[in-house]
Amino acid sequence: RGTRRSARRRSHQASRPCFSDLASLKMGVRTLSEALQLSDECRVITTGSAPFNIVHTNKAWSKLTGFKFTEVANRSNSFLQGPHTEAKLVERMRAASEKGETTRVRVVNYDRYGTPFYNSIEIFPLRDMAGKLTHYCGVLHGEDIPDGVVPPIDRKPEELFGSTSGSSTDPDEEEETAAAASGWPAAAAGRGAGRVKRLRRGGHVTLQEALDNTEDAVVMTQPHPPYAITHVNAPWCEMCGYTLEEVEGLSSSILQGAETDEALLSELMASVRRGESSSATLVNYKKGGARFLNQVHIQPVFNQNDEVDQFMAMLHEVDEKERPPHAAPAAAKKAGRRGERA
């Protein structure tokens, strides 16, 4: 427990905002585009309606709480609460959200191992151009609690997320129950707003649609070189073997290897830079070097001002027999070109 507490103190010190972060916090996070920017602030984004499921966390949030994104994706934030979490402050968050107001509280929360900490959290409602609430962004700042003030709780991280299947047969009732337990704002965004549909390919895809997709393996990047990764979802992590925390700020080149056709990849990116969608089948590599055939669809993602805000790739692993002729390994193509010259 002492080792974990020391790690907690180091984590909190590292999570304290720099002056640029404080300036952005003072300005507030107003849009989904701003919330998804790479930042040293501890950030979590949820859907805008009950049960306020988590759709994005960043590396700083994981360092503060001890949880990885894949552990908490599509869950409410209730796992951060414990016996000394102040109910009045939780209610204050709910009351403010009903008015669509930004909320700021300092509440006792618990990390992955049950160590308590003071969480100064500011919750921003994120709205689209029509003023409709789509998501919430929470910006967290952790502080250590002096020994003996709030006792830690004993819990095993691997047992923390028990299955709740069968607890209710009514989806709306499940949403209300999860929202009541979460301590997250009870926003008047309508039931079912957080339910996810598979993304359509092509056409005009918004940030909201891309972020709320939990069916396809999705990676989102900045729209300019080096195309730093801003978000990956749980299916992408499962397919590629990396965690969000490992790849945040890197480029998708981590999936490339000896047989990746770079010429074909360049053609894909050129299409997206022109604002066009494009698809291809590429050889990629998972964490650890396992080779797989990736049927990838890349397209621009637009913000609420109808501007290209991110690039998004949807990945689909296919069998070798599904490889189209143009997706022959790069090494084989080079050998073929040498044979033609001979």
Describe what you observe in this structure:
This protein is of the alpha+beta class. Helices cover 31% and strands 25% of the residues. A hairpin with a 5-residue loop joins strand 4 and strand 5 (133-144). The longest helix has 14 residues, at 2-15. It is globular. Mean pLDDT is 80; it is low at 12-25, 163-198 and 328-342.
Summarize the entry for a quick read.
This protein is an alpha+beta fold and 342 residues long. The chain contains 13 helices and eleven strands.
Layout: helices, strands, pairs:
Blueprint: H1 2-15, H2 19-27, H3 32-35, E1 42-47, E2 54-57, H4 59-65, H5 69-72, H6 87-98, E3 103-110, E4 116-127, E5 133-144, H7 157-160, H8 171-182, E6 205-206, H9 207-212, E7 217-221, E8 229-232, H10 234-240, H11 244-247, H12 262-273, E9 278-285, E10 291-302, E11 308-318, H13 330-341
Parallel strand pairs: 6-10
Antiparallel strand pairs: 1-2, 1-5, 3-4, 4-5, 7-8, 7-11, 9-10, 10-11
